[in-house]
Amino acid sequence: MLRETGRAAVPLPLAETLLAGWLLAEAGIPAPKGAISCGPTRKGDKVLLAANGTLRGQLRAVPQARHASHLAILAEQEQGGLAVALVEAAAAQIADGTSLADDALNAVTGRDA
């Protein structure tokens, strides 16, 4: 399925949604309907999940974030360790950007950053 959508250059975050769905399932979080992207995707990107559930930090290059309704983010917790956070895309600042292949590749910043 991924090969065929890639061959047809379908501008949908299909691979990202599948990966995010797996990540959410592993964390025991129900996946919402619609397109989902995930991050961090770059070495050095870091997001902190505060005890109150807010996110701080920036991810420099999240594939298809502009076209996703939600983001599955691997974040560091204030008290230590990692957690998967499900974030509505509208709750983050998403900057325009593209990859070399002209796909959406967006910087995502938590609103509380």
Q: How would you characterize the overall build of this protein?
A:
There is one protein chain. With 113 residues, this protein is of the alpha/beta class. It has one domain (11-110): Butyryl-CoA Dehydrogenase, subunit A, domain 2. The protein has two helices and seven strands, in the order ααβββββββ. Strands 1, 2, 3, 4, 5, 6 and 7 form a seven-stranded mixed sheet that branches. A hairpin with a 4-residue loop joins strand 4 and strand 5.
Q: What string gives the helices and strands in order?
A: HHEEEEEEE
- Considering the protein shown, what is the CATH homologous superfamily? Butyryl-CoA Dehydrogenase, subunit A, domain 2
Helix content: 10-25%
Round the mean pLDDT to the nearest integer and report it: 85
Summing up helix and strand content along with how strands pair, one would put the structural category as alpha/beta
Using the coordinates shown, work out and report the CATH topology. Butyryl-CoA Dehydrogenase, subunit A, domain 2
The number of domains: 1
State the end-to-end CA separation: 37 Å
Topology:
Blueprint: H1 2-7, H2 14-27, E1 36-39, E2 46-49, E3 55-63, E4 70-77, E5 82-88, E6 92-94, E7 105-110
Parallel strand pairs: 1-4, 2-4
Antiparallel strand pairs: 2-3, 3-7, 4-5, 6-7
